[in-house]
Structure formats: structure tokens, C-alpha cells
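hiii so um. not sure if this is the right channel but i have a protein structure encoded as C-alpha cells and i wanna go backwards to a sequence. like what aa goes where. can anyone help
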């Protein structure tokens, strides 16, 4: 078994697999741990995103194979496929495979937000709450996104990560899911989806709750790009997300009425972690870097955005404030002091779950809550710019030179020896035109 574990980890590392649903933690490192259970995260709880629910229905065998490989690598005796009950096609496809497997089960989740948060999902799947400042592994669980596990299965067949399933939706003519080559520009995918419906539009990279407003001309698909959401420039969500931090802080100090609604919906607070955004907002006059409990507790926030975009009647953004606090502390090298392990969920945990349908309405996204079918079109850009930092850890170091001809799937960058990182591969065949700050530019020959 040890040899098989090593083989899986080596193949996953060589293929450059990273967490597809979050910040891009290198999967070969995650699978090096020992765990009791591996949870396949198919919750896809961000409104409007449609990729994971479709690839689970399209590639159930690969998903189960990836999950089983992750179980072998981690020594886990149990695998849980966690997805929303409403993803009926995926549930049906996976049920047929799972009924033959004694060590696998399907967990049907409610349509609530944030069902895919790793702390929430771990609790739903195991009944155990991970400690403050901890990981699912602290309660014996490894959580992997379903796209990641499909990439694990492909890695076992020596297929590196060169493409990524991306939902392109919102105010576009044909909302779709595409299999996009890494490094393709957002604007090319928006055009592939029929183009924006408004001349003045803005683009969110990721989900509407946790994603950021980005420039579609400069942004490019990476291993963690789950969604590209086009909205009118004057949409409520865009205006909220674009508000500068200085304005947020000024408004927070002046307008927070201490109603506590932000804290009452906070999923981490409901799990028993000491996150109390209303107290953080009350303590803002102390300064973002004050090492007082109401400020430092921001380090336990998972940035789900419920407090800001769903709860606050004054349209304040505790999530953004928490993010700024975490940044200040990270820059100062300050470690999280909140490490309680005896965490018990609030008795209101079940009652205060937020339905995704209500969230969609609250965000003003009901008219964009439409199907985005998988379009199997082969997208072949003339040029890609592949980032050297698509993962947690250090940037990858180029293995190719300008002017070199590369083939699709060829390794073009790798993490420096012994450092946390991931290998990167060419997503198209062509000539390496440039190696620079933005990454490695490859152009198709004759382009
Ligand atoms: S919901 Fe808004 S107004 Fe109420 S306590 Fe939280 S930040 Fe303040
Ligand atoms: S973003 Fe807000 S609601 Fe979400 S975990 Fe952080 S404090 Fe809680």
C-alpha cells in the first residue's frame, strides 16, 4: 500500500493538480496526509455557478476513481460524495456507481449557502467540528473539490492539468460551461458565450459572493478559475464589491447599528467558532492591527460574504473588513491566537441556514439564475499567458526558454526543490514568446 500511495502522490504532483475549488492548495501535498475520510466537495454553493454539478454527471466514473485514489493515498477507509440533492442527474449517475462500493456513500446536501465551506461540509459529513484555526484534517477528514478529484483520476493516466471547466454566465447571450485552456483571456470566453448584453459591464472572477471584480481584458483562466460572471456595471453587487476599503471603514464606524444580524448568520459562528463580526465592527476604532479579541477573531472568518451581502441592513461589509485585518496581521507575521478545540455548534445551527434561492434574490441575481449547459466546443486560442502562480506556495520556475517550441501537456514550469508549489504545463502547442511577470506566453505557430 505504501508503494501505491507513493505512486499516486508522484503522479498527482507530476500532473500539477491543485485544489480547483479554492485557493489552489497543491493536491499531492494534501494527499500525503493520513486521514479517516475523504470528502468529495460537489456542493457548488456559490450562486450561478454550474460547472461542478455538470461534470459530476458527465464524468462520474472519473470522479469515483479519483476519490478512491485519494482514499488509498491518505489511508482513508471512507469516501463521501457530497452534493446537493437538487443535482439530480449527478446524484443518479453517482448512485449507480456507489451502490457497488461498501466504503463510499452519497451525502445529499440542502440547497443552502455556504454548503461547500470546508468547515460546514466537514460537519455535515462527519458530525465533527474542526477546531478554531484548524483544518478538516484535525478531525480526520480531507476535503477535495470534485474537479480536483477528476484531475486526480486523469493524473493517474498521465494527463496533466492543462484545462479547466469554467462557468461563463450572468449578462451574456448564452450562459455556458466551457473546458478552457489555462491562460486564455476572460474576454475570449465571454465572446464564446455570445458576448456581454450591455456595453457597460463588469466582470466577477469566481462566485458572486467570494469573487472579485476584475478586468476581463487582463484576467486569464487559471487552475482555480471557477466562474466568470458578467453583470451591468451599475449592478448592486458590483457597486458593493468596488467600494474602496477606506470608504468601507469610514461607513462602518459611522453606520453600524450593532443589530448583530451579521453574527447571527455567520456560518463559522454557528459552528461554534469565535467569529463575531458585529463586535469586530464595534472595535474598529482600535485600529485594524489591534491585538484585541474582537479584532483578532477576524482570523477565523472564511470570507463567505454572508454578513456583508445578505445580512447587513446598512450595507456594510464586515467580510471585507475581516479580510483587511487578516492582511494586516499576515504582513506583521502575527499568528492566530484563537485555537479552541472544544467547539460545539450553536443550537440554532439548523434554523439559521440560508437558502440559496433567497440569497440569489437578495443579491439581485434572480434574472441571471439560469442554466449554463456544458458546451463541448474545442476552444483554441492563438495565444495564452500561463501564470506561474496558480496555487498556494511559491511561484513555479520556468523550465523552458523564449523561442522554444512546446507541445500541449509539456511541463513548462515547476516548483523549486522542496518548496510548496505545483508543476505547470502548456495548454496549447506553440512557441514560447515571452517569459515575464505575468507568466509564460505561448503562441500557436503561424498565429
Ligand atoms: S449587520 Fe451591519 S449594522 Fe448590524 S451589526 Fe453587523 S455590521 Fe453592524
Ligand atoms: S464573511 Fe462574515 S459571515 Fe462569513 S465567516 Fe466571515 S464573518 Fe462570518
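sure thing!! here u go:
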Amino acid at each position: 500500500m505504501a508503494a501505491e500511495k507513493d505512486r499516486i502522490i508522484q503522479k498527482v504532483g507530476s500532473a500539477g493538480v491543485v485544489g480547483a475549488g479554492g485557493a489552489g492548495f497543491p493536491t499531492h501535498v494534501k494527499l500525503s496526509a493520513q486521514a479517516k475520510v475523504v470528502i468529495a466537495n460537489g456542493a457548488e454553493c456559490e450562486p450561478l455557478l454550474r460547472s461542478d454539478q455538470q461534470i459530476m454527471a458527465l464524468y462520474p466514473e472519473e470522479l469515483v476513481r479519483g476519490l478512491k485514489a485519494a482514499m488509498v493515498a491518505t489511508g482513508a477507509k471512507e469516501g463521501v460524495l457530497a452534493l446537493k440533492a437538487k443535482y439530480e442527474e449527478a446524484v443518479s449517475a453517482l448512485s449507480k456507481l456507489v451502490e457497488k462500493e461498501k466504503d463510499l456513500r452519497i451525502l445529499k446536501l440542502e440547497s443552502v449557502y455556504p454548503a461547500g465551506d470546508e468547515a460546514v461540509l466537514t460537519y455535515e459529513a462527519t458530525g465533527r467540528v474542526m477546531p478554531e484555526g484548524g483544518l478538516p484534517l484535525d478531525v480526520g477528514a480531507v476535503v477535495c473539490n470534485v474537479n480536483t478529484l477528476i484531475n486526480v483520476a486523469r493524473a493517474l493516466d498521465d494527463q496533466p492539468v492543462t484545462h479547466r471547466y469554467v462557468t461563463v454566465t450572468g449578462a451574456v447571450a448564452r450562459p455556458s460551461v466551457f473546458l478552457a485552456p489555462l491562460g486564455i483571456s476572460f474576454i475570449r470566453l465571454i465572446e464564446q458565450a455570445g458576448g456581454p448584453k450591455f456595453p457597460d459591464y463588469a466582470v466577477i472572477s469566481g462566485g458572486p459572493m467570494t469573487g472579485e471584480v476584475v478586468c476581463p481584458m487582463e484576467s486569464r483562466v487559471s487552475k482555480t478559475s471557477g466562474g466568470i460572471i458578467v453583470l451591468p456595471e451599475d449592478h448592486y453587487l458590483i457597486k458593493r464589491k468596488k467600494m474602496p476599503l477606506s470608504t468601507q471603514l469610514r461607513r462602518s464606524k459611522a453606520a453600524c447599528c450593532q443589530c448583530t444580524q451579521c453574527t447571527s448568520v455567520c456560518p463559522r459562528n454557528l459552528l461554534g467558532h469565535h467569529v463575531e463580526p458585529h463586535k469586530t465592527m464595534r472595535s474598529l476604532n482600535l485600529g485594524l492591527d489591534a491585538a484585541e479579541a474582537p479584532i483578532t477573531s477576524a482570523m477565523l472568518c472564511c470570507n463567505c460574504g454572508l454578513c456583508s451581502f445578505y445580512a447587513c441592513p446598512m450595507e456594510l461589509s464586515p467580510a471585507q473588513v475581516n479580510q483587511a485585518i487578516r492582511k494586516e496581521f499576515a504582513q506583521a507575521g502575527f499568528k492566530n491566537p484563537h485555537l479552541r478545540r472544544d467547539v460545539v455548534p450553536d443550537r440554532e445551527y439548523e434554523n439559521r441556514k440560508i437558502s440559496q434561492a433567497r440569497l440569489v434574490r437578495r443579491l439581485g441575481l434572480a434574472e441571471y439564475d439560469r442554466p449554463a449547459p456544458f458546451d463541448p466546443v474545442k476552444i483554441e486560442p492563438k495565444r495564452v499567458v500561463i501564470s506561474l502562480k496558480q496555487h498556494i506556495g511559491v511561484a513555479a520556475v520556468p523550465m523552458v526558454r523564449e523561442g522554444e517550441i512546446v507541445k500541449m501537456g509539456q511541463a513548462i514550469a515547476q516548483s523549486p526543490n522542496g518548496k510548496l508549489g505545483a508543476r505547470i504545463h502548456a495548454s496549447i502547442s506553440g512557441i514560447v514568446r515571452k517569459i515575464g511577470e505575468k507568466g509564460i506566453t505561448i503562441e500557436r505557430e503561424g498565429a
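oh and Residues 256-262, 277-278, 281, 311-312, 314, 316, 318 surround iron/sulfur cluster (ligand 1) (CB under 6 Å).
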